[in-house]
Amino acid sequence: MISTTNTLSAGAGLSNFALIKKAESCHSLTKEEIIKLLEDNSINNNLFNVADNVRKQFVGDDVHLRALIEFSNICKCNCKYCGIRKDNNCIERYRMTEEEIISLAKLAKDLDYKTVVLQSGEDAFFSTEKLCKIIEQIKKLNLAVTLSIGEKTYQEYKDYKEAGADRYLLRIETTNRNLYEQMHPNMSFENRINCLNNLKELGYETGTGCLVGLPLQTVDSLAEDILFFKKLNADMVGLGPFIPAPNTPLQNEQGGDLTLALKVMAITRLLLPDINIPATTAMETLHPDGRIFALKSGANVVMPNITNINYKKKYTIYPGKAGENISAESHKKTVVDKIKSIGRNISQNYGFRTKV
Ligand code: SAM
User: I need a surface site. Which of 36, 185, 261, 282 has the fewest CB within 10 A?
Assistant: First the structure.
């Protein structure tokens, strides 16, 4: 998968190896320079190694574990790529009770996690009042709380924050407005950006990211995505290859490429050296060692899924999700063993961004 050829690229300006060196020291690249790196597969090993060095220098060898709870697969949105989109009538829907969510948070605490990530479709059943009550109870366990529940109003984000939420994940998915609008019927690109700006303004550790390999997506657009992460000064960036999901409008499209997703991630590490970057489940889904490749190419976070198996199987955003059939306990053990096998440590702290 990873090329070992060591050729210097032709053309005006710096060689691609020199561009990587420049990004390592200045943490900036132009859009054209990013495109050159994304298009040249002969530099991949060097890019991944340098991103790994930058990760080590800025955020160290600790890997932060965040326990993921997928608490509802009910969604009012119709994102064309997503297996839990509203119009997919072929999946069984579920919604956890408040007690089930809290009991999973307690399990996270018992398994020594420091953060829980509450993720769901955009499910209006969970009113601000209900969510705030859940957040407050989880905070009493001395856990950090990350939310990943989609687009909300400024006031809703403010209420969750006041209830104790620490972080929020909302991928921009793509910064190409046309592609965004095609992929997200009845959603607004402006609103997505507003949501991210509001989260930043409210003091959340704000995570964003994109899908790599969406139909009609270009390298140019991926370069814009990376520059967007930098402009937003995202605290976390999660990148995932697009994986076609059955019973969606994109079910017959070609999926994203793992190497390209890793390259987007590695360049993001060069430009935002001190942020938290997860080795994502979608990467592990495409290759059994996808998370290891990611951890060796700039990532420093893993989000093991602690959702009960019967629910986890129904949170089918894409097929064959890594870790779908294993319990929270075994999943944690597998992830910890893998991390230790590459000489990295399990973080014992909350893993907030320390800005350098
Ligand atoms: N509703 C929340 C939101 O929109 O942010 C969180 C749930 S959403 C399912 C979480 C992420 O799943 C999305 O940001 C998207 O990038 C990813 N996702 C959805 N469908 C996918 C697919 N087919 N392949 C890879 N990732 C996918």
Answer: 185
**Smallest Cα–Cα separation from 300: which of 280, 285, 328?**
280
More confident residue, 19 or 6: 19
Q: Is 273 in the pocket of ligand 1 (CB under 6 A)?
A: no
The residues spanned by each domain of the chain are 14-346
- CA–CA gap between residue 29 and residue 8 (Å, rounded): 18
Output the DSSP codes for 128-151. Answer: HHHHHHHHHHHHTTT-EEEEE---
- Residue 356 confidence (pLDDT): 83
Alpha-carbon span 146 to 101, nearest angstrom = 14
Q: Is the pLDDT of residue 11 over 60?
A: no
Q: Is 245 in the pocket of ligand 1 (CB under 6 A)?
A: yes
168: Cβ below 6 Å to ligand 1?
Answer: no
Q: Which atom of ligand 1 is nearest to the CA of 317?
A: 20
The alpha carbon of 157 is separated from its chain's Cα centroid by a whole number of angstroms, namely 19
Q: What is the structure's pLDDT at 12?
A: 56
Neighbour tally for 193: CB within 10 Å: 16
Residue 263 C-beta-side C-alpha neighbours within 13 Å: 27
Mean pLDDT value across residues 142-164: 98
Distances (CA, A) of 30 to 124, 236, 268, 356: 41, 21, 13, 22
pLDDT value for 324:
82
Ligand 1 contact, 318 CB (< 6 A): yes
Report how far ligand 1's centroid is from the alpha carbon of 208 (Å): 11
Q: Which class is 14-346 in CATH?
A: alpha beta
User: Tell me, what's the pLDDT at 4?
Assistant: 32
**Closest protein CA for atom 5 of ligand 1:** 150
User: What pTM was computed for the model?
Assistant: 0.96
Task: Return phi, psi of residue 64, to 5°.
Answer: -90, 130
pLDDT tens-place string over residues 236-260: 999 999 999 999 999 999 999 999 9
Ligand 1 centre and the CA of 82: distance in Å? 6
